Amino acid sequence: xxxxxxxxxxxxxxxxxxxxxxxxxxxxxxxxxxxxxxxxxxxxxxxxxxxxxxxxxxxxxxxxxxxxxxxxxxxxxxxxxxxxxxxxxxxxxxxxxxxxxxxxxxxxxxxxxxxxxxxxxxxxxxxxxxxxxxxxxxxxxxxxxxxxxxxxxxxxxxxxxxxxxxxxxxxxxxxxxxxxxxxxxxxxxxxxxxxxxxxxxxxxxxxxxxxxxxxxxxxxxxxxxxxxxxxxxxxxxxxxxxxxxxxxxxxxxxxxxxxxxxxxxxxxxxxxxxxxxxxxxxxxxxxxxxxxxxxxxxxxxxx
Length: 303
Ligand SMILES: NC(=O)c1ccc[n+]([C@@H]2O[C@H](COP(=O)([O-])OP(=O)(O)OC[C@H]3O[C@@H](n4cnc5c(N)ncnc54)[C@H](OP(=O)(O)O)[C@@H]3O)[C@@H](O)[C@H]2O)c1
What we know:
Strand order of the largest sheet: 5-4-3-6-7-8-9-10
Bound molecules: NADP nicotinamide-adenine-dinucleotide phosphate
Radius of gyration: 18 Å
Number of strands: 10
Shape: globular
């Protein structure tokens, strides 16, 4: 299996996945992330699976390795709502793996009640936005060493509302709104990183998995949960939901493609979607980037 060029179109030459190639997948203990880990393990890459619940993560890692014919899999537990944990995780990954081919940000939560972490951040924003921002920046050297390499975010596809003046939902909290806001922030971050990393051989894209029958649905408001319950036979399986992400992580035809949203809705598994105008605004994107730099302590950008 080949993972080919990333970064600026035509810039890097193609390179094969080798035994040293590493793919880091967060949110890999269940749902879509676990299926992405399995799909990547089948390509021969060493998969580093990250999630919070240690026993469940270990079980999933064993399942992925066994299903992928004994593929090398590493389980690294970390609570990504805590930036100290993100830093500890990044240090361990950096120390153990010199080159990273794929970094896929699958971990996310929908929290019905507002929760503040011990570090003082709203937990949805911390897990879904701050952690991918911080982890990507802390692993940039390793992604650069693995270039052509790919960073992938998940988009939610919900309402494109976004309140830059209340990113931690301090004034008003609704779980579904906070989640949507975090997913919009993720694609703004994706666009910003794609721009900042355009000459590094690191491509950054996002995927839309469709509506997938996973545990995250339990965090939705009751009426939405009911609708999805009635629609259950129509929902995608985690394996179907993972297909766009696996493709975005490995497809040779995406060599050099960065700053795009791909998805698998409407029968076409490899469709490019236009991002909503609200998230494309470069000024808002830069404000978000500056804010994230401030709250995570990433002041010096190495790109
Ligand atoms: N399902 C859908 O319809 C849908 C639609 C659009 C986008 N997405 C996106 O797809 C991605 C995967 O979602 P999913 O549906 O597969 O959800 P899921 O089944 O609920 O899985 C979420 C994963 O995130 C991990 N996670 C949550 N909080 C964490 C934390 N604080 N620290 C570390 N790991 C944490 C969970 O691990 P633990 O159990 O260990 O906490 C789990 O592995 C998410 O980014 C989601 O936004 C899903």
